[in-house]
Amino acid sequence: MLESHYNAMLSTVASASGAVASVSASASAAASASAAAAASAGDDNNSHSKSSSSSNGSSVEIIGSQEVSIVSQMAMPISRGQEAPPSGQETPLSDEEVNYPWKIQIFCSELLRDDQCPLSLTAKRHKEIIQSMQYERQPWRIRERMKTASVALVLCLNIGVDPPDVVKIQPCSRLECWIDPSSVSPPKAMEQIGNNLQMQYERWQPRARYKKCHDPTVDDVKKLCTSLRRNAKGERILFHYNGHGVPKPTANGEIWVFNKTFTQYIPLSIFELITWMSAPSIYVYDCSNAGIIINSFQPYAEQHEHELEKALAAALQRSGVQQLAPGLVAGAANQVQLPNQLVSYKNCIHLAACAANEILPMNAQLPADLFTSCLTTPINIALKWYAMQEKLGMVPRIQSELIDKIPGKVNDRRTMMGELNWIFTAITDTIAWNTLPRELFQRLFRQDLLVASLFRNFLLAERILRSHDCTPVSLPALPPCYRHPMWKAWDLVVDLALQQLPDILDHNAPYRQLPFFEHQLTAFQVWLDSESESRTPPEQLPIVLQVLLSQVHRLRALELLARFLDLGPWAVNLALGVGIFPYVLKLLQSSTRELRPVLVFIWAKILAVDPSCQVDLVKEYKYFLSVLQDTSVSKEHRTLSAFVLASIVHNFLLGQTSALQGPLLSICLEQLNDGSWLLRQWLAICLGMLWQNFEKARWSGARDLAHEKLYVLLRDSIPEVRAAAVFALGTFISSVTDRSEEQANNIDRIIAITMLETVGEDMSPLVRMELAAALQWMVLLFESQFVAVYLAEHMRGHASASSFVMCGDPRDLASSTHSLERHVTMRRGASSSSISNMGGASGTASSGYSSGTSVRSKSGSGASSAAGAAGGTNTIPFQSIFTKLWLGICNLAQDPFPRVAAIAQEIVDHVRDTALCPIMAAKEATMATATEKCSSLSVSLPPSPNTRGNYLGGGGAGGAGAAGESPPVGAAASGASHWAQKLRLSGSGGVAGAAGDPQAILQRKLRTSSINDETDSGLGYSRGSGAAGAGLGLPSGPRESTHSARSSGSESNQYMEPGHCLTPIVQTEFIPWAISYFTRPGKERYSSAEGAAEEGRQRFPVDRNSTELRRRRSRYLRNDYVRRLARRQQQEQSDRFAYDVCVWNRKTQFTPSIVKLLPYEPQIAVAYREKVLVYDFQWNSVRTYGAEAMGGTSTGNSSGSGSGSGSSSSLNGSTPRKSGPSSTFARVSSIEFINAQDQALKLVAHDDGVVRVWQSSPPANSAPEDPPAKARLITAWTALGLPTVQGYRQRNIASGGSIGKGADASSLLSGGSGTGSIVTTWQQCNQHLVVGGGGCRFIRIWDLEKELKVIDIPLGRSETSARVLASYLPNMRCDVILAGCEDGSVRLFDSRCSLQYSPIVVHRRHSAPILHASLRANNPVLVSGCSEGRISVMDMRAGAGNRVLYEWDAGGDVTAIASHQIADRVACGNASKIGIYSMDGRVQKVLRTNEGFIGPKIGHPTCLSFHAYKVQLAVGFVDNTVAIYSPTPVL
Q1: Do 64 and 1123 contact (CB within 8 A), yes or no?
Q2: What is the distance between the alpha carbons of residues 902 and 129, in angstroms, rounded to a whole number?
Q3: pLDDT tens digits for 100-154?
Q4: What DSSP character marks residue 182?
Q5: Nearest residue to 1350 via CA among 1370, 1323, 1372
Q6: Which helix (H) or strand (E) holds 350?
Q7: C-alpha span between 888 and 895 (Å, rounded)
Q8: Which of 1065, 695, 1125 is closest to 910 using CA atoms?
Q9: Which CA distances in Å does 209 have to 205, 273, 433, 447, 1511?
Q10: Where are the alpha helices (DSSP H) in 844-897?
């Protein structure tokens, strides 16, 4: 089976690469004639850039733009009793180097083009801060919709009598409301005009109450206005005044009416009219000189507003006095009333036909009430006015009588009149929206239907009246709109409509729809296609709104609207501001399937920007549920439906209840394993939001085993999906606050343990952050158990319980009380099948305490692990569960990613404060009441990180009376106010009164915090407490509640109603950040391409015109140039071509342990102690990657100080809690460059197993002297948990990686790799990071794209660990891993195979630890060297006995070895020299300690490294110097 497997792989690779070679022939040739193989390999090494054929026919060429494939075969013998190999394969009789079965192995390396190599760590979670998207949310909802309830029509015509101040021309305009007054008697004409005016207004507001007043007196007007206001109450009243039969208004703002006998004109002050009308109201003045009325009103309104503000201020001040002394100022309050009689006139609207000192036009072709006609019959007057314009000449002359016969109704859009009115509405809305300020547009065009119609028609009146030298005036004033380009579109519409009119009237021809909306949609599409960053908002947006009313163009309009909303939050704000919301809400009632995807997309965009729309969508949730359930809909739109449903149920009980009644829960669970990662993520988030603080949904999910189905997503290949699953499981735990149900407790314990074991060591900080936030619910719900674990831990760490009572500032306890290290191995137990049987272990806590369960402390003292607690019982006590959870939380508090550590540290601080609050309050009470008796108390301070002073003379667990020295009083009272405040907040007032015995306080605290309580609710306190503290030897007694105010949940449940929400300790930004994904423009979201290959990947859509893509192409051209230049140098090299010129050197602060040249950029990375420095030759700058690189400021994803023992990061500007000494990183042990072909990220591995990936800001090209920006931490995780961690951090920090002159030679190792050093190698093409060393007997592979551990490959049966891992070229694909080990063996593994078949071969040519092992890039040749100076070059194609091509001894006391992967060079350094050899062992150059009197002086080399392509050698010396050597060409 194994043979066929490898044969299939061989045929596949051979066919793909096109390399046709006789594998068996080459292997037999290599086995039978090793000398020939050696000679051919030597020829290959001496001509690196030429395409050559080795003995097996492999084709080799090292260029960046051409793929190279090397396929060879290695024969391996079989052990006894195994199947013999096929004929033609050589089988050595005995070779102790080979410990694995015979197999055919493909050794395949492939050089890819730069654009074919994937880029790692480029997802959004790496590029940006995990927080909600910041954007300005503009108000779009109408705060108060108003309605014009009453209309007063005041007509002062006095038909037959012209006013004295107006001289009319002949012929003169006569029509009033399209009626000629001279055609009938004056009373009848007056009645017809009034009725027509009312009918014209009723087109816009049919439900209003209309009152007519013909030729009134002052009393008539007053009676009319007061009665309308009395009936309208707070609604708007319209006052229409036609003053064509009276004189013009006066300069004082007076309009004219009549006396009862019509013998005099009586002035009516506008101020009296306003008083009668009150507010809100709207006034229409159709008379000459009408603008003077507005001019008189404005100063009056401003003065009135000022007086109103003063009255309101006085009323507020008066109400404040009454609140302070209600009995003293009761009489004064009756004297000054609240200003109810004062009314604000800010909402009053005025429309005047002309400005001051202007008279109305008298053109006989136009009506006399031209302004009124424009406001009430806009289409008729617009067509008549258009027909009068001879200069246009676009249509034949149309008689005015034909226009009066236009068929159709205004509200029927299928007719000519209806469509013209529809288009007119769209055009005037567009003009107003593009001209007016947004707030004014909302107020005038969206608040009141009648006001909106009047102002649309007012824009037409401005255009028509200005053509007759008349300027309409409004208050609030509008900017000039009569020359807006959209009027040209209106003229075209009118022209096309009038062309059809004669045929329709004469020949009864059908009406053809106008192409206006189609053309405007095309213009909108052109705007969307422009893709200009500086473009202004589109003019056509209000027109798109109107097109939604058309079934013909609705789908296209929605698709264009969706494209517009996809431009970002600003586009959504614009669409909501223009009034899109009610239209798309109404469309959800449509059953058209074609509209479903686009409507879902639009609503997802709206909800992402404005979540408050969830209230409006509750009734329509079934629409989105049907889309989510329909598998024929694309996965992208099903994802959007899941997001919309999640938004509907998010913190909204009505939405949760409605969605639970529908099958939302079952639909989400059915699709959890969908191929689309984004759909999986939002299904999990939707489930989490559904049962968040909604217990009914949680139990419904529990019946469907929702939590177990979510376990699968904890191992998902996408970190966002894993984080979403953790969020859903966390809200699942927190949804039940009544902990009297044992079933709920068992389920939650299982969930918490499963999450901790599955994602507790996840590579992604995003997942670990959510894990910490999810575990906080266990802390809140089972607070007393965690407090007991915390206190029991301290009881083991100190001589007696009383040592806690008189301690110093509790903030200083974090460093000494925290006794859980990061890398303590967590026991993998408590599975779901066994936890259900734990009920019997909850009756007593004695077995748990007496077992001595403990964890490793920082001082190095340790005891048995949590597994020992259950060693003598058949069931696992709950103590081990909470101890394990507490261990996991403490590990997260020491996370290498600062934000994760800060979140977990807050949870630890919460437990600490809850545990110590009553104890510290008791201490304060004791100090306050018995300060003089302090010396008689047996108290002590806990050991601090710096001093170990103990004030106790001795004593055991109950040694309260032991004699000892008392601590200083100041130290004991340092935190008095802090803890007294906490205890007062907790409501435990009885503690201070009974605080005479501090030991009793601790005993009561421990009794009320028994670990093995079955539940942590109020019901649990009624049970027996005799065995609660038996394990500690504490006397049993009645339980007393002494819990902190911060405990929201757990103990306080006896006072909390079921369904009450817990207050979280910490909150993450994962959900707001996930929501912001839908607010982003489409080009900033991942590609939505479907298919098996794309659904599981996070790929951005390719923007061919983007600046980033052009820059990347330029970098690829640079890379190709570097490779070609290096190949040219290698072609020119000869034996005389030596590394004799130091082209760059620099002094460092400490001895460098690692030096590494970047492959394409003029930079070198130097590591010493715990930091990495990257020097840039071109810009003469240096960047530091270490603990100080973050500097406590927010930089990218990270903020605050680095992680470590006892650290607490400062986040979002908050002051960090001082908890021990400042944290530092462990010693750097390895450096890798990720995305070296583009913009290299620096991967730094430390001795403690932590790996950090850093990103530097781009260099300041314009100013090289500027200091470089601080580095940004992209990600950090524990890549390798070390088996031995006790005291390693102190040792490494003390040593710091520096090597003095008297250092032992064995410590001068390649890359600073000591016995416990971590070694890494990076495979860019596979996006795999291989980690080994640190004493581990395996090598681990991490997938940086999925941020998951791939596999742990054991090194074999021997007790060895990896010392070095072979590096790869940036663009080389190779599945073979080469590891050099401590025992001198060199082992090859195939990462594609399972663990059983992954080992390929083991070479044992060395007896000392391996310092260097490398695979050549251009042929299957292995170069290895050990600390004894023995260097071996082996051909991997040959048989086991003939693999060694060359072998030589470079001298003893070797500290560093390096080989070039392409060039024919090997460098070896010791205390006396640096020797540079060719692959056949010939010495090319020797750099001695002192080359002569004027020659270069070099020190003791600690590390060597060749450039990946160039012939450059980087050297680090023991005298704190770094140098780069390069050969000079022979002249």
Answers
A1: yes
A2: 15
A3: 433 334 455 778 899 999 999 999 899 888 988 888 888 888 777 788 999 999 9
A4: G
A5: 1323
A6: strand 349-352
A7: 10
A8: 1065
A9: 9, 19, 30, 19, 95
A10: 846-850, 878-893
Kindly report, residue by residue over 809-832, the tens digit of the pLDDT. Answer: 433 433 333 333 333 333 333 333
Contact residues for 1108 (Cβ-Cβ < 8 A; gap 6+) = none
**Residue 630 tokens, joined:** 């329909």
Are 1213 and 1204 in contact, with CB atoms under 8 Å apart? no
Q: How far is C-alpha 237 from the geometric centre of its chain's CA atoms?
A: 51
Considering only CA atoms, which of 173, 196, 180 is closest in space to residue 370?
A: 173
- List the structure tokens of 1257: 């800001």
CA distance 569 to 576: 10
Report the candidate in 439, 465, 502, 518 with the shortest Cα–Cα distance to residue 359. Answer: 465
* Cβ 916 vs Cβ 859: under 8 Å: no
Q: Are strands 1141-1147 and 1410-1415 parallel, antiparallel or unpaired?
A: unpaired
The residue written with tokens 């031209």 in the block is 370
Lookup: tokens for 1381: 């080990």
In 92-197 the beta strands, taken as DSSP E runs, fall at 105-111, 148-155
DSSP-derived letter for residue 772 is H
Token pair, residue 484, equals 């807006």
Q: Please check whether residue 447 is in contact with residue 454, taking contact to mean a CB–CB distance below 8 angstroms.
A: no
Tokens found for residue 829: 């137990």
**pTM score, two decimals?**
0.78
- Which pLDDT belongs to residue 1451? 85
Buried b (16+ CB within 10 A) or exposed e, 942-965: bbebeeeebbbeebeebbbebebe
Phi, psi of 900 (to 5 degrees): -65, -45
Tokens coding 701: 């999910």
pLDDT tens figures, 273-329:
999 998 889 999 999 999 999 999 988 888 888 888 888 888 877 766 444 344 433
Q: What is the pLDDT of residues 318-360, one digit of tens each?
A: 766 444 344 433 333 333 444 445 677 877 899 999 999 899 9
CA distances from 529 to 516, 560, 1100, 1198, 1231 (A): 20, 10, 20, 38, 46
Look up residue 1167 and give its two tokens.
């590591």
Question: Is the bond leading into 1399 cis (omega within 30 degrees of zero)?
Answer: no
Q: Which long-range contacts (CB under 8 A, 24 or more apart) does 1270-1273 make?
A: 1270/1189, 1270/1190, 1270/1191, 1270/1193, 1270/1195, 1271/1183, 1271/1184, 1271/1185, 1271/1189, 1271/1190, 1271/1195, 1271/1242, 1272/1195, 1272/1196, 1272/1197, 1272/1198, 1273/897, 1273/898, 1273/1189, 1273/1190, 1273/1195, 1273/1196, 1273/1197, 1273/1198
In this predicted structure, what is the pLDDT of residue 519? 94
For 1184, the 3-state DSSP assignment is strand
Tokens representing 390 are: 């001879």
Phi then psi for 656, rounded to 5 degrees?
-65, -45
Mean pLDDT of 1124-1142: 75
Rg of the chain over Cα atoms, rounded to whole angstroms, equals: 43
In DSSP terms, which residues pair with 1330 in a beta bridge? 1321, 1341
Distance CA(1322)–CA(859), nearest Å, equals 36
* Cβ-defined contacts of 853-856 (< 8 Å, 24+): 853/792, 853/879, 853/880, 853/883, 854/793, 854/796, 854/819, 855/793, 855/819, 855/820, 855/821, 855/824, 855/883, 855/887, 856/819, 856/820, 856/821, 856/824, 856/1285, 856/1286
Q: Contacts by 1175-1178 with C-beta closer than 8 Å and gap 24+?
A: 1175/1146, 1175/1522, 1176/1259, 1177/1144, 1178/1259
How do strand 1171-1176 and strand 1163-1168 relate by DSSP bridges? antiparallel
**Largest pairwise CA distance in the chain:** 138
Residue length of the chain: 1531
Q: Which residues pair with 1401 in a beta bridge?
A: 1388
The tokens for 388 are: 């009068």
Model pLDDT, residue 301: 84
Task: Write out the two tokens for 539.
Answer: 């003019």
